[in-house]
């Protein structure tokens, strides 16, 4: 049975309102960071009552998760663009990792949101996010990782890489990159000049980009080089 015009219009209005809330959340994240954003701020930005937000999202965690979905959609486009260029799998994997790091440096709120979600256990995500939101978040992340997985698999096929589980490695690279991007934001490395005597040195986004690229290539080729 075809939906009635009234129901179609109501569904369209609901989708539009959801997009307005997500756009406002994203704008606030990018301008002030996620730590200072409250539901009241988002509602005020959209020009609605905070209660309306809870009609569209089960809670703050779900709203933040679907905002991450928006970041992931942008990131996916960047990763696919470099993964689809000419070059060896090694060259393309380096380009993909570099594009990921560059995006995280450009949008630190994405890193904060993604890390906040990763601190939740699977059971907590299932409790705090609706099934539809979990699906959308998973689809966004898997779409981003597709470029990494495909590049790793192609490297295995031509003998450049030896990877037992490309999906596991892609997920590990994602989590590691988020941590490294946080290190780039801090801008400092802690070491020792002698036992028990700490020292601090500076680190830049470029340093992190180079280190993550080298690490990814080493992980992809680690079995072959043994």
* The CATH fourth-level homologous superfamily of the largest domain: Tetracycline Repressor, domain 2
Number of helices: 10
According to CATH, the fold-level topology of the largest domain is Tetracycline Repressor, domain 2
Largest sheet: 2 strands, antiparallel
Following the backbone from N to C, one meets helices and strands in this order, namely HHHHHHHHHEEH
End-to-end Cα distance, whole Å, is 62 Å
User: Considering DSSP H and I runs of 4 or more, what fraction of the residues is helical?
Assistant: over 70%
Residue windows where pLDDT falls under 50 for at least 5 positions: none
The residue-averaged pLDDT reads 87
Q: From the alpha-carbon coordinates, what is the Rg to the nearest angstrom?
A: 20 Å
* CATH architecture classification of the largest domain: Orthogonal Bundle
Task: Describe the oligomeric state of these chains in a short phrase.
Answer: single chain
Shape: globular
Strand order of the largest sheet: 1-2
Total strands: 2
Number of domains: 2
């Amino acid at each position: 049975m075809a939906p009635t015009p009234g129901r179609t219009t109501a569904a369209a209005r609901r989708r539009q309102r959801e997009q307005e809330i997500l756009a406002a959340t994203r704008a606030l994240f990018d301008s002030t960071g996620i730590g200072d954003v409250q539901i009241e701020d988002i509602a005020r930005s959209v020009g609605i009552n905070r209660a309306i937000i809870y009609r569209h999202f089960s809670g703050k965690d779900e709203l933040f998760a679907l905002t991450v979905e928006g970041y992931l959609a942008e990131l996916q486009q960047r990763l696919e663009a470099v993964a689809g260029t000419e070059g060896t799998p090694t060259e393309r994997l380096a380009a993909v990792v570099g594009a990921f790091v560059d995006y995280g440096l450009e949008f630190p709120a994405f890193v904060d949101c993604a890390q906040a979600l990763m601190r939740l256990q699977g059971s907590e995500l299932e409790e705090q996010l609706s099934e539809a939101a979990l699906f959308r978040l998973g689809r966004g992340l898997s779409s981003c990782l597709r470029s990494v997985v495909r590049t790793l698999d192609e490297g295995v096929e031509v003998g450049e890489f030896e990877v037992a589980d490309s999906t596991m490695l892609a997920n590990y690279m994602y989590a590691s990159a988020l941590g490294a991007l946080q290190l780039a934001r801090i801008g400092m490395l802690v070491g020792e000049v002698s036992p028990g005597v700490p020292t601090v040195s500076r680190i830049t986004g470029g340093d992190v980009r180079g280190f993550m690229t080298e690490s990814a290539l080493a992980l992809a080729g680690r079995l072959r080089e043994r």
